[in-house]
Fold this protein.
Amino acid sequence: MPKSHDPIIKSDIVNTSYLKYKICVSGAAETGHCADGALEKAKELGREIVRQGAVLMTGATTGVPYWSAIGAKEENGISIGLSPAATEKAHIKSYRLPVDYFDIIIYTGFEYAGRNLLLTRSSDAVIIVCGRIGTINEFTIAFEDKKPIGVLTETGGAADMLEDILDKSHRGHGKVIFESDPKLLVEKLIEVIKKEKEDNGS
């Protein structure tokens, strides 16, 4: 007989309906080139991710990801950051990155490129807001991994270039959703995540 604390597996397919979806917000750490209102939209994204029952994932950095973390915490949600630094000290002193508005920060020690890979791989979907070359890097990783991706349009930077980039890259649009409204974008992404999990039997 199993002990009271031992898990009982009744089938080969584990019911994961109790798990929260993990949605990454990727965007500009330096926001001088972003469109007016982009940071408020990033904050609203953080709020909507929590309102719709998901967990926020970011690169634990300044700018757009930081504002989304503020929004998530204002809704009493969960905010997880993946840092490029190896330690909290390096995160603060060397990278000059924030530690507030996060429930957990994982110190990867893999610099920005390695952090980007871990961040997108560990998320169920990725949302792009404004952004520069690092955001494009996270977008292309998620695209190659066939992740659901949301692009919050009218926020400037990379977000407003990606549709043209996809058109000129001749690879199709994959699972990319373009939407200017944060609430609708999160709703549409969660629909895609749910369908994928159902199709995969999880």
Notes: The first strand starts at residue 22 and ends at 27. The first helix runs from residue 38 to 51. The CA atoms of residues 127 and 150 lie 4 Å apart. The beta strands are 22-27, 55-58, 79-83, 104-107, 125-129, 149-152, 176-179.
